[in-house]
Amino acid sequence: MGSPESELNRDGAGREVQHKVTISGPYYMQTTEVTLRQWNAIMGKKLFGKRKGADDMPVVKVSWKDCIKFIKKLNALNEGVYRLPTEAEWEYACRAGSKTAYSWGNKISCDKGMYSNNTNKSDDCISFVQSMKLKNNQPAPVKTYSPNSWGLYDMHGNVWEWCQDLYGDYSANAVIDPLGPDSGSMRIRRGGSWFFHGYQCRSANRANAHPSSRFRNTGFRLVREVR
Fold this sequence. Notes:
By secondary structure, the protein is of the alpha/beta class. It has helices at 36-43, 64-75, 87-95, 126-131; strands spanning 21-22, 27-29, 82-83, 160-166, 175-176, 187-190, 206-209, 218-219, 223-225. The strands form three sheets. The chain has a four-stranded mixed β-sheet with strand order 7-6-4-8, covered by helices on one side. Strands 2-9-3 form a three-stranded antiparallel β-sheet. It has a two-stranded parallel ribbon with strand order 1-5. The two termini are 25 Å apart.
């Protein structure tokens, strides 16, 4: 977990220190980000109001706390035990066995995932997105881009994804089933998004935000526990 010192655009100062992580048990990772259809089916009109948009768009403008409310309602259906992924589970699934900056290699291009689709901030992929008949200044429908080798879509780009952990610097020591620090105020986000540069979509890249924050470039995906 983490990135080698030679990786381009890596964040130093303890944020991406490479260290060995053991995940002791299996888990299911959702193949896509949670969609508007899934969000509306669970949350309905009562909480936050019914959100508008195509069913296969990732839900955004959800805080970490909103995600926890969604999960509690989902688990109340007694159809399995769901939760946010830990940061370690997320990176393991994103890498899909790779050791490179991205699951496919060390360079990113506009056909690999949704990034730099912002006419005001980062416009590297504006023309490519238009050629795909997609809209600028927003994410793409889930499954628009090819999945990684484990069948997971949009692990690189589209929308940032909340993880369970509180944010903290890594230790260089080997760890088993890490859950982040015991205290802090910020929660982890992973994966990069349509909003800004491609290097933010690296497998090891980390971001954090206050758990009450709602961003138009941030959503989430779920883990289902294996009993």
